[in-house]
Amino acid sequence: MEKRKALLLGDYSYPEFHPLQGVDEEISHILQDWMTVQCSENRKMLLKENLTPFDLCISYCDSRKEVLSPQQTAGLLSYVSGGGGLLVLHNGITLQGRYEIAQLMGARFLRHPAAGPLSFKVTAPDHPIMEGIEPFEIQEEPYRFDFDPFTEKTLLMEYEHEGEWWPAAWSLSYGLGRVVYLMPGHNQPSFQHEGYRKLLLQAAKWAGRFPG
């Protein structure tokens, strides 16, 4: 079986808090049996003609100051609505600078309290992404979100913080494409957690419509 292709977009040169170094190796290893992963920090990869060869786009972008151009925004929207897959990991939601992209992803990042050990539970056990996923605990930043009211989302997981449960992962359809957001991914150790590795792989396969 020929491997499919994924584009991993992040920041090597000037990350604010989450460099792609190290994380790129973990993600490539998690997905190695299913797809080859091309890593880039060039937002021009989001132009329609550059996204076309890929079955899946993964955002680990970390610069809230860098707002996508109208052409890059249109490229990503066209890619997903035409049937492409988008997997957004942790800080990858910072592409939210354009309201169209925030709606595509289903939410905006607001803030996060201090990092610490968080417990995660499954809220949609019948979703294909969650097959065989057990509750797990991981050291993470407890992100808070402002959800787009017009986007129909399936909440996949929640995390517990200060006695309350908060959204931690969700999926949605956008046109002919699929979008998944996973909150964990603060640093390289997050991607070494077996439970999260399995979740990431299954999210990637679902978003990219991979068989099996």
Automatic annotation (TrEMBL):
Keyword entries, A-Z: Hydrolase
Residue span(s) of domain ThuA-like: 33-207
Family annotation (InterPro entries): Class_I_gatase-like (IPR029062), ThuA-like (IPR029010)
GO MF, one annotated term: hydrolase activity
Domain of life, per lineage: Bacteria
Keyword Lipoprotein among record annotations: no
Name of the molecule in the record: Glycosyl hydrolase
Organism: Paenibacillus polymyxa (Bacillus polymyxa)
